[in-house]
């Protein structure tokens, strides 16, 4: 008689057969999936309870991917507002994506649908912008509630990290609100976005953000571009001393990246690396504009350019 084994299963007619390797792998995969959702209580095969803290969506890949990218000495984050741009960013060698909508407004919260499709098409970490509108960073109670719900939705739909920021009316980091939002964001890592560039005292703001537990600060050095703000970025990197990541961003191109990295001491940088792309529309009504007078042209798109991303990647690699 064949000894009992978990690899020995009866077939449909009750006749024993040995499970194939493929079947065993499928079975083990299903078991691991079930283990991620529940644990079996000792002494009972039937009673189950949910884990107290669900595993973060990025737990299997985020740290591995970012560590691998940083092993090259730098990490490039590309901000995107479309699936095409996200795919191009990854193809060009980006280490992380900041996903948002309406880059013309500096980026606002993207739709859940956009996040879902991007996650289906890229493997690198996706950090999602949480910003309910363009304009300043002083939010009403209702806008804060929108932000809370957006955070919850983005976590459900497998965001790897989040990007947000809020200020008080006198230009300080709104520590109380940020603390509340960070609690909702846990366990995901969070970047404080370029609201930082609107603060009254950036050196004080840095210490506040360190104490709150933000992972990084995205900044142009409180100036019109990272190149113009380079002296302050360098000072922030020195003051941070590794307690928080300082990531230059704002107007970074292949023409100035080397100078910014060498002059700041930063190891991460943020860019859009976009090029214009003509619309595929054949019929065009030039009399109608869907946005305000300062909006983008109706028949011209801006998408991340694979060649530009690769060039920036090569410059960073040679510099750092």
Describe the structure in your own words.
Strand 8 (161-164), helix 6 (175-185) and strand 9 (190-192) form a beta-alpha-beta unit. The protein is α/β, with parallel strands linked by helices and 320 residues long. It has helices at residues 21-37, 62-70, 83-92, 112-121, 141-156, 175-185, 202-212, 230-240, 257-264, 306-319; strands at 8-10, 16-18, 38-40, 48-50, 75-80, 96-99, 126-129, 161-164, 190-192, 216-219, 245-248, 268-271, 274-278, 300-304. Helix content is 37%, strand content 17%. It has ten helices and 14 strands. The model is unreliable at 1-22 and 31-61 (pLDDT under 50).
Protein traits:
globular, 320 residues, 10 helices, disordered N terminus, alpha/beta, 17% strand
Average pLDDT number: 83
Rounded to an integer in angstroms, the radius of gyration calculated over CA atoms is 24 Å
**DSSP summary, beta strand count:** 14
Give the percentage of residues in beta strands: 15-25%
The SSE order reads EEHEEHEHEHEHEHEHEHEHEEEH
Helix content: 25-40%
